[in-house]
Amino acid sequence: AYLTRTGKLPPENLFKETHPAPGQLPQNAKQLTTGVLPDSIIFDFVDAKDDRARADAAELWRDYWLPDEGWAVKIEEVRTEVDHVALRCWMSRPSIVGGGYMLIARLPAEEAGAYTARMEVTIFGRISQMQYENIGGLPYYRLIIEEASVLR
Q1: DSSP three-state, residue 117
Q2: How far apart are CA 125 and CA 38, in angstroms?
């Protein structure tokens, strides 16, 4: 099942092909439909039983652009890294072992001073990868958004 703001969508309705105006999404980009939330993306990855199944789940969503309305998140931490700024947003979900997952939106380095912890923003961008790590016996999941932009 896939979660949306309006309920469940059958898999054939999860995606739409986009043909954006110049300066928006790349030509022939694939975009998630309106209402698809980050939980819909991460749950397949979290439910995977082994590394191969996780890789398959991650590949299913890779390179899809977020819906036109973006995803509303609360920034937990802003990290300046070598070539970008990472907005780290903890997505608390009691149904996930470990209590949730980290959504990370990567922005150009020059935007480092524009954001602070506890800001509520809407992010846009492209799903680039999902990561899994076992830390102290607990799973730690990350959903990485590249080519991100933010609306405050």
Answers
A1: coil
A2: 12
